[in-house]
Amino acid sequence: MNSHLSGQCACGTVRYRCSSAPLAMLNCHCRDCQLSSGAPFASGVIVSSADLEVDGVPSNYSVRAGSGQQATRSFCAGCGTPLFTRSEANPQFTSIRFPTLVDASGFAPMLDIWTSSAQPWVCLDDKLPHFDQSPQQPD
Q: How many domains, the chain?
């Protein structure tokens, strides 16, 4: 995937650029991601929060995630497009919802997380690592 990412919401009110390459690409199957995406899982591109520039002001919604940590989801107030997720557990990282990328063709998930909440009819890729919850961060 391109080392310089850019994207926007459906109406173009909120645009973003990231000056660094993705750190990871994943599918999250937690119940909160299911609800916020309207899909069986949310796919995201993990980037350094410090390298993400946002034009426009997204709205935010915070919840206590299954991990017990607060997760903040950013979306466009005008069109409702989900854009970003940040966790208080790892504020140095931001997950960009991959469908918002200008060029999403390079998205290739590297892992599936929160598979303990995956819908029973979702076919997980056996070639990808699966985690019942979030993988542990190295110290």
A: 1
